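Interim report, section 4.2 (structural modelling).
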Amino acid sequence: MKVAFYPGCVSKGACPELYVSATLIAKNLGLELEELTQAPCTGAGVLSEQNPDLADALNGLTLAMAEAEGADLMTICSTCQGVLSSHNFHLTREKERLDRANATIADQGFRYTGTTKVKHLLWMLFEDIGIDRVASAIKRKLTGLKIAPFYGCYILRPVESLGLKERPERKGYLERLIALLGAEPVEYRGSTKCCGFPMATFNREKALAMGGNHIIEAKEKGADLLVTPCPLCHLNLDAQQPDAARVLKKEIDVPIFHLPQLLGLAFGYEPEQLRLNHHVVPTKGALEKVELKV
Amino acid sequence: MEFTIEVGRYNPEGTYADSAKPGQPYPAPWDRSPARRYQTYTVDLPEHAVVLDALIAIREYQDQTVAVRCACRSAICGSCAMWINGHAHLACKSKLAEFTKDGKTRVESPPSMPIIRDLVCDMKPFWDKHLAVRPWLENKQPIPPPNEEYRVANASMEELIQEVSCISCGACLMDCESFAVNQDFLGPQALAQAYRYAADPRDAKTEERLGEYSQSGGIWDCTHCYECVTQCPKGVAPLEQILKLRRMAVDAGFTHNPGTRHADAFAESVRESGRLNELTLMPKSIGFFNIIEQLKTLPSAFNLVRAGKLPPLIHKKIPGVNRIKAIFERVGGRFK
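Predicted structure of the assembly:
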């Protein structure tokens, strides 16, 4: 199955382990990735809030590129998913906005007609690839691990543009997947909440406290690790975790896995192949529970 | 139909949890809030019953000590906002059948607010914030004589219908992620009202308001998580109004704040390379001359280096970046 692959800036920047593991498991699941190397950043909501026309044009360009490939657009980032979904929602419903965006990208030889579907890898596992196919790829059950899901705001909210009204089951995919891989999903309040990343550069302490509190809650409920489909959450929860611990004056030490890394482990890849040795918070303790070393 | 309700009871004799001792920085709301116990009741109600029906049935026929605040029972008065299964909702608008999970529905006072008793939280923080944005018109002069109306274009008021629909129930603030760690944040309801008055064509103090709202605790302290949009029972979409205020404030020239610097640095990076440059985003948002804050970010940069995760020092441009530059040139506005 061919998909127009939108890796997002962070998987090509501060989270290279996400790009590596996502492409590995995509191949394993029979996805033919046509990477949109010329697609721009979505603006992560920052450009949308400051200049909606600019964000419509940039995201319209990406949607047009996928349309030209004749394939669904696949993201591996909750934030990319949210922003692209939101612009796609408006561009396909408000003709005026679509016309304005098309007028801008026409200079570059592009036109968007409104047919592209934007889907996060997490959704594709259930809706396109099929959960049976995922189950048949499992070579190593993650039995004994207690895993706390962390969705990231923009794959859950706002519900209209993400299609969650039509498909409310999307709100529970991570828990179902964790159980499918043989691990136990941890139920806690923080799973659907904000990691704090949007404020990380300009309201640092509060952002650290926000993310840190959610990890601590998961830890108190017995979680060995958190799994997230969003690399921005990963940055705030993993890379900033030592700082969050300092701000909250508490020990945290809970590793954060990217969704494709968790899948990769269950599919039998070695931790190094998934770059689980390149995290700020060591993944060693969690891996030992499934008798793996890093 | 039989429904099981777990009611969070505030126990005045209860002690604070360990993690909520004074002096702890930023405890999570549930650590800060006094210990509560959960009491289970069973009620027999029709299938279409709402949570409030159950609470009233409990209070009237089973246990008159359960404290619950309600008035209109039809989502107009805004009194009965409370936590239902861990999120803020109006009890009178939430169908029991939809909220029953694993055979029961849990209702409690939201942990982010002080509790008075049982399901009744103290709304003081909410009203303090509401008042702080000066939610009233400061009319442009001269105002019309008493026997005449102050006329404005219909369209300009239609713009504000969404914000006027607010019933001050507080559901948005109760679930606000920023408020949970930052008691000084004005919060979604107050800022949605702030927009309602700042954008009113009759108001004379728009610029002064925008200056105030741009300060610490204001529009830039929102974390953009959409909880308030999801929880608002009236479709006010507070976050959308906060974003409008941000645009108005920047257009009015209130740009000397980390939030605007962040947006500018972000836009510059996308314009020049087509991608986000994580390496320069943080220092540019903080401001190069804010040495103390810059130094505070060093340990986390060091952690990235140690894990072998630091983004490449030479930031790569996407192929075809000229296309992106041309788009910015055409519709980039301030970001050109």
